[in-house]
Design goal:
Shape of chain B: globular
Radius of gyration of chain B: 18 Å
Largest sheet of chain B: 5 strands, antiparallel
Number of domains of chain A: 1
Helix content of chain B: 10-25%
Number of strands of chain A: 5
Distance between the termini of chain B: 68 Å
Shape of chain A: globular
Strand content of chain A: 5-15%
Distance between the termini of chain A: 54 Å
CATH class of chain B: Mainly Beta
Structural class of chain A: mainly alpha
Strand order of the largest sheet of chain A: 2-5
Number of domains of chain B: 1
Largest interface: A-B, 70 and 63 residues
Helix content of chain A: 55-70%
Largest sheet of chain A: 2 strands, antiparallel
CATH topology of chain B: Jelly Rolls
Oligomer: heterodimer
Strand content of chain B: 35-45%
Number of strands of chain B: 9
Order of helices and strands of chain B: HEEEEEEEEE
Structural class of chain B: alpha+beta
Number of helices of chain B: 1
Radius of gyration of chain A: 22 Å
Chain lengths: 299, 147
C-alpha cells in the first residue's frame, strides 16, 4: 500500500512539474458539468496556452549601440579576473549573462584580443551552473581558428547564448535561464548608458535607443515575475522595479501603425511614428541605478 | 495488486523518458532545423520552443527596434498540422498573418519606430475525431541583419 501511495505521489509530482511554464488562466476555474468532453478538452488546451516574454539579447543590444555610433570602451566590461569571485548559482547565472554581453560587444566591435578570455569566463560560469555542452573546448578552438572572421564569431556567440538558454529551459530551470537574461540585459544597459557623451546629449541617437528600453524593462519585469517563487529572482526584482519607476518618467507618444510591403526586398515596413522623450536628469538617474544594480553582482 | 504496481511504475518511467526525449528533440529541432530558416539574418541567441498540441496557442511579446531589420521564423515539427501566426501591435491591430502568405513560416520586417509587438502562434487541427491530438515541437526564432 505504501508503494502505491509513493507511486501516486510521484505521478502527482510529475504532473505538477510538467505544468511549470507560465500559462494563461492559472487560476481555478469552475467546471460546468453540462459541457461536453470535447469542449472540456478545448477549455483545458486554452488554459494551458503558453506565454513567452522575449528581451533584447546581448547581440541585439550590441548591434543597436554600434548602429547608434558609440565607440567601444573596454574599461566598461566586467574584468575576467573577477570570475573566481562567483561561486553561487545566482552570481554565476548573472555573470554568464554579463560575460556573454561583454563578448557580444567585443565581437561586434572586432576587439579580437578580448574574445578568447571572455569566452573562457563564460565557459567557467556555464560549467559552474552544470550547463553541459553550451560552451566547451571545441567552442574555444573554433573561436581561435576564426578570430578574424566576425560573422563566424557572432554565430558562435549567438550559439553560446542559445545553448545555455535551451539547456536550462529544457531542464525546467526556467528561473536560472531568466537570471542569465537579466544579467545580459543589465550589462547592455550599463555599457550603453556609460557610452553616452553627456556633452552631446540632445539629439543623441544612443540616448533614443536607451529611452526605447523602457518597453524592455517592462518585458524583463514580466519575465522575472513569472518565477516570483524563486529567492534569487525576488532579490533581483526589487531593484529592477526601482529602475522601472525611473524609466516610467520617459514619455512616449505614438501614432497608429500600418504596414508597407516592399516587393523588391520582400521586407514589410511597419510605419507609425513614436517619440521617446527623456530628460537629462531622468537619464542620469537611470545610469546611476543601472550602475548600482550591476555593481552589486560584478564584485 | 502486484500487476497494478508494475503498470504504475512503467507509466511513470515512460512519462519521464518521453518528457526528456521530447525536450531534447525540441532543443535539437530549434537549433538544427529552425535556425536555418533565418538564412542570412543573425540569430539573436534567444530560445523559445515548446511542445504544443493541435489547437494550442502560444503568445510571445518582444520589443523590436527601429534601427534593425528582422526576420521571424516559426517552425513546427513533422506530424503537426500547419501553424498559423499573426503579429499584432500594442493596440491589438493585426499587422501580419501568414494565412495571407500561404502559411509561410518566415516574415521579414523593419520598423519606422521601436515598438512592442505580440506574436500569436496557433497550431491548427487535422479535424479528426476519436484520435489522440497530434503534438510536437514549435519554435519561434528571431534574426536581425548585421552591417
Amino acid at each position: 500500500m505504501q508503494l502505491i501511495l509513493g507511486v501516486t505521489a510521484l505521478l502527482i509530482c510529475l504532473a505538477a512539474t510538467s505544468c511549470k511554464g507560465r500559462t494563461k488562466g492559472d487560476g481555478a476555474k469552475e467546471k460546468d458539468e453540462n459541457i461536453s468532453a470535447d469542449e472540456q478538452t478545448m477549455e483545458q488546451i486554452k488554459s494551458a496556452e503558453k506565454v513567452f516574454n522575449a528581451l533584447p539579447t546581448p547581440l541585439e543590444v550590441a548591434q543597436l549601440i554600434k548602429e547608434a555610433g558609440a565607440k567601444f570602451d573596454a574599461t566598461l566590461l566586467n574584468p575576467v579576473e573577477n570570475k573566481s569571485n562567483y561561486t553561487t548559482s545566482k552570481s554565476m547565472a548573472l555573470n554568464l549573462g554579463i560575460y556573454v554581453c561583454d563578448l557580444s560587444f567585443a565581437s561586434m566591435y572586432d576587439e579580437t584580443s578580448l574574445l578568447v578570455n571572455y569566452m573562457e569566463s563564460a565557459e567557467d560560469m556555464a560549467t559552474g551552473l552544470g550547463i553541459i555542452d553550451a560552451i566547451d573546448e571545441t567552442t574555444i578552438e573554433k573561436l581561435e581558428q576564426n578570430i578574424n572572421n566576425r560573422d563566424v564569431i557572432m554565430e558562435i556567440v549567438s550559439e553560446t547564448f542559445l545553448n545555455s538558454q535551451a539547456y536550462l529551459e529544457d531542464d525546467e530551470q526556467h528561473a536560472v535561464a531568466a537570471t542569465i537574461i537579466a544579467g545580459g540585459f543589465i550589462e547592455g544597459l550599463y555599457i550603453s548608458t556609460h557610452m553616452v557623451d553627456m556633452k552631446n546629449f540632445k539629439g543623441n541617437k544612443l540616448v533614443g535607443t536607451i529611452a526605447d528600453q523602457k518597453m524592455s524593462v517592462d518585458d524583463l519585469i514580466r519575465l522575472l515575475e513569472t518565477y516570483n517563487d524563486n529567492t534569487a529572482i525576488q532579490e533581483l526584482l526589487g531593484p529592477i522595479r526601482e529602475l522601472k519607476t525611473i524609466f516610467d518618467k520617459v514619455e512616449r507618444s505614438t501614432t497608429p501603425s500600418a504596414t508597407k510591403y516592399d516587393d523588391k526586398t520582400g521586407v514589410t515596413e511597419i510605419t507609425g511614428a513614436a517619440l521617446s522623450e527623456i530628460k537629462q536628469d531622468t537619464f542620469l538617474a537611470i545610469k546611476e541605478k543601472v550602475g548600482e544594480i550591476r555593481n552589486v553582482y560584478v564584485k | 495488486m502486484k500487476q497494478l504496481i508494475q503498470i504504475l511504475l512503467v507509466t511513470v518511467l515512460l512519462s519521464v523518458i518521453t518528457s526528456g526525449e521530447t525536450n531534447a528533440q525540441c532543443k535539437g529541432f530549434a537549433k538544427s532545423l529552425c535556425k536555418k530558416e533565418l538564412g542570412a539574418y543573425l540569430h539573436d541567441g534567444n530560445y523559445h520552443a515548446a511542445v504544443l498540441v493541435e489547437g494550442e496557442e502560444a503568445e510571445l511579446y518582444k520589443t523590436f527596434y527601429s534601427d534593425l531589420e528582422y526576420r521571424v521564423a516559426i517552425c513546427a515539427a513533422d506530424g503537426l498540422p500547419p501553424v498559423e501566426f499573426t503579429v499584432l501591435d500594442a493596440t491589438g491591430k493585426m499587422l501580419y498573418s501568414n494565412k495571407e502568405s500561404e502559411m509561410s513560416g518566415v516574415w521579414d520586417f523593419k520598423l519606422e519606430a521601436s515598438q512592442q509587438l505580440k506574436i500569436i502562434v496557433k497550431v491548427t487541427t487535422f479535424g479528426t475525431r476519436n484520435e489522440l491530438p497530434a503534438s510536437g515541437c514549435v519554435a519561434i526564432m528571431f534574426g536581425f541583419k548585421t552591417k
